[in-house]
Specification:
Number of helices: 11
Order of helices and strands: HHHHHHHHHHH
Largest sheet: none
Helix content: over 70%
CATH architecture: Up-down Bundle
CATH superfamily: Rhodopsin 7-helix transmembrane proteins
Radius of gyration: 20 Å
Distance between the termini: 66 Å
CATH class: Mainly Alpha
CATH topology: Rhopdopsin 7-helix transmembrane proteins
Strand content: under 5%
Mean pLDDT: 87
Oligomer: single chain
Length: 257
């Protein structure tokens, strides 16, 4: 288990470095983006910047909280000492920003503010359910009835988001979207469908494994999820925004001539 503990410990540092590099990339892309798409770069800078700071905090805190080295018990004790409120506040802010990128990449004038509001409210409800569910599990040291109920409610809100996103994408005429927009929106949808499942899988690690092992595995799973769903997501969205900006600039230039 020492190898898994070490992998989890250093995954915090890896997440922090990767997120920081992504922030640099997003800043470099801003001059290439049309003004209406620059908000996507700034949002991803916020998400990955928050991620970089939080994971470095966890890395430094966990290292100082394990006086006996990289053993499972010491690691799980250090992880359990992290304020749960901090991680869920991070997820709340970041995931609301992430789902808001759907209407912003499409064009808010095409889908309306109501779509954005539905996504933000459903996402916030999902994160709040996860917070109270995990707090119940941590207090009991095992899965609880409240943990199961809140897990089901959170998953229901996740499915609700998938349904409303699918309906909006299905209704949009393909002629209103450029190829980079269509492709990236499809990828974003499947990220929420597949990559976001990393978090409920991590949520249940404490059920299937002995407590200290389950906590360590949960953290490693969550760190993997943060790389996929924050950094890779951001690279995909900002790159698409740059391509759309280039197409629109080329079209405007052609019309001017």
């Amino acid at each position: 288990m020492t190898g898994m503990v070490a992998l989890t410990f250093y995954s915090y540092l890896f997440c922090s470095i990767i997120a920081l590099l992504a922030v640099v990339y997003f800043f470099l892309q801003i001059p290439s983006l049309k003004s209406n798409y620059r908000i996507l770069a700034y949002m991803n800078i916020g998400v990955c910047g928050f991620s970089a700071l939080l994971h470095f905090y966890y890395f430094s805190t966990m290292g100082s909280a394990m006086p006996d080295g990289l053993d499972a018990h010491g690691a799980s004790s250090a992880i359990s000492s992290f304020p749960l409120e901090v991680r869920y506040f991070y997820w709340l802010v970041c995931t609301v920003l992430l789902v808001s990128m759907f209407p912003l990449l499409i064009g808010i004038e095409k889908v309306g503010g109501k779509f954005l509001a539905k996504l933000a409210i459903a996402d916030a409800g999902m994160i709040i359910c996860g917070f109270f569910g995990e707090r119940s599990i941590n207090a009991a040291g095992q899965m609880t009835n409240a943990g199961v109920v809140l897990f089901v409610l959170g998953c229901a809100l996740w499915v609700y988001m998938l349904v409303i996103i699918y309906r909006v994408l299905q209704r949009l005429p393909s002629s209103e979207l450029s190829p980079p927009q269509r492709d990236t929106l499809a990828y974003m949808y499947f990220f929420i469908l597949l990559a976001w499942s990393i978090y409920p899988i991590g949520y249940f690690h404490v059920v299937y494994f002995q407590e200290s092992i389950g906590i360590v595995l949960r953290e490693f799973t969550f760190n993997l999820g943060d790389i996929v769903n924050k950094v890779i997501w951001g690279l995909m969205v900002v790159t698409a925004a740059r391509k759309v900006s280039d197409l629109e600039k080329a079209k405007r230039s052609a019309n001017a001539h």
